[in-house]
Design brief:
203 residues; mainly alpha; 0% strand; elongated
Length: 203
C-alpha cells in the first residue's frame, strides 16, 4: 500500500478502487462552482448578487452530483453547507468577506481532523488504512503516522493563505487561489510525499 493509494481513500472516505479519481476531484474541487459563481457575479451585481448566485449554484452542484452518481459525497455536502451558512452571514451583514472565508474554514476542518487524530494517538490516515487492510505491516503504519501529522500542518498553512487572500486579495485573485492555487499546491505536496515514501523504501 502506497501513499498514492492511501491518501485518496482517507481524505474522501472512499473505499472503492474505481471511484478514487472521483474522490480526489471531490476533495480538491469540492464547492468550487459556487465560489466561481460568486466571483463572477459579484463583479457585476455586488455582494448580494454574488452570494445568491453562489447559493443557487451550490444547490445545482448537489443536484447534479446526485443525478450523476446516485448519491452526494460528504465533502460536497460539507463545502456547500459552508457556502450556505457563510452566504447567509454575508447577506445579513452585506459583507462578502464572510463568504470568502469558506476555503479557509474548509482547510481548518481538515487540519483539525489530522492534527487532532495525531494528538489523541489515533491518526486518521492510519486508522483508514487499517480498515482497508487489517494485516498491513506496522512499519508501514509508523511511516504514515508522520504523514498524517504533516498533512495537518500543511492544511493549516493553506487555511492561513486562504484567510489572507480573503482579507487582502481582490475577488478574482481569491477565486483563482481556490480554483487553481489550492488544488495545485495540494497535488504538489502529495506528489512530494509519494516521492519521499518511495525513496525511503529503496534498498
Amino acid at each position: 500500500l502506497s501513499l498514492h493509494d492511501a491518501l485518496p481513500i482517507s481524505l474522501a472516505g472512499n473505499r472503492t478502487m474505481n471511484s478514487r479519481p472521483q474522490a480526489i476531484r471531490n476533495f480538491l474541487l469540492g464547492g468550487l462552482l459556487p465560489l466561481v459563481a460568486f466571483a463572477v457575479v459579484e463583479q457585476v451585481y455586488g455582494t448580494i448578487g454574488g452570494v445568491i448566485a453562489a447559493i443557487v449554484f451550490g444547490g445545482g452542484e448537489i443536484f447534479w452530483e446526485y443525478r450523476r452518481l446516485g448519491k452526494v459525497q460528504g465533502i460536497t455536502w460539507m463545502s456547500n453547507a459552508l457556502v450556505l451558512l457563510l452566504g447567509l452571514a454575508s447577506l445579513w451583514e452585506n459583507n462578502g468577506i464572510y463568504f470568502k472565508l469558506q476555503p479557509a474554514i474548509f482547510m481548518i476542518v481538515f487540519s483539525c481532523l489530522f492534527l487532532g487524530s495525531s494528538f489523541w494517538g489515533r491518526p486518521f490516515l492510519v486508522e483508514m488504512m487499517k480498515k482497508q487492510n487489517p494485516q498491513i505491516p506496522e512499519r508501514i503504519l509508523m511511516r504514515f503516522r508522520g504523514v498524517n501529522t504533516r498533512l495537518g500542518v500543511f492544511f493549516l498553512g493553506l487555511a492561513g493563505l486562504s484567510a489572507y487572500s480573503a482579507f487582502r486579495w481582490s475577488t478574482p485573485a481569491w477565486a483563482s487561489l481556490k480554483a487553481m492555487g489550492l488544488p495545485l499546491l495540494t497535488s504538489i505536496y502529495v506528489f512530494i510525499e509519494i516521492l519521499l515514501i518511495r525513496f525511503s523504501q529503496r534498498p
